[in-house]
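Holo model, zinc ion. Inputs:
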Amino acid sequence: MLTYECIPVGMLQSNCYLLRDEGSGALALIDCGFFNRAVADAIATQGGDLRYLLLTHGHFDHIQGAQALRGRYPNAQIAIGAEDAPYLRGEAESVAGWKSKHSVAMEPDLLLHEGETIQVGGGVLRVLETPGHTPGGLCFFAEKERLLFTGDTLFYEEVGRDDLPGGDWATLRASLERLIELPGDAVVLPGHGQVSSLAHERAANPYVGLAE
Ligand SMILES: [Zn+2]
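Output:
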């Protein structure tokens, strides 16, 4: 059974989520825009067994803590969508004129693809490819716990930008339609801002096309 806590970090208050498998104590982070004492303390308080850093996408405000994490937790594997790996490697620009703004280029340990699963102790996360905000954007779905980590694809009554390099509205829209049609009422845990639910977004998000 996976539980989570949310630690907003950095200037843009990017949500860094710490997941814990209650059975084994295994931990995973989803996004780490900035590695600070709050993140380090949360990991330590939860037992320190960090297995993964899972990146929803390659923008600097979600990946900047990766280098520090690799140094501090050498057993944690750093994973990103295959199409977004160039951001981590420092080859792609997050914003026009900006390289990904973290100084050290990094090679990810794992490249993630649609339908793959990540095992965090006894907990399971499914990889959903949701491009549009970036070419290799991902969401992570803990189906059993009904937790949907949406990165910068879906926010509370909002959606991610499509106007940054590599963004595309038609692609983002298709990804949103797919998320919103996931069965049931998952908790929506976005990359910025407050928690929501799929039911709320179906009813109230003006960008998903299903509000009537
Ligand atoms: Zn972003």
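Residues 169-180 form the longest helix (12 residues). The first strand starts at residue 2 and ends at 9.
Archived with the compound record.
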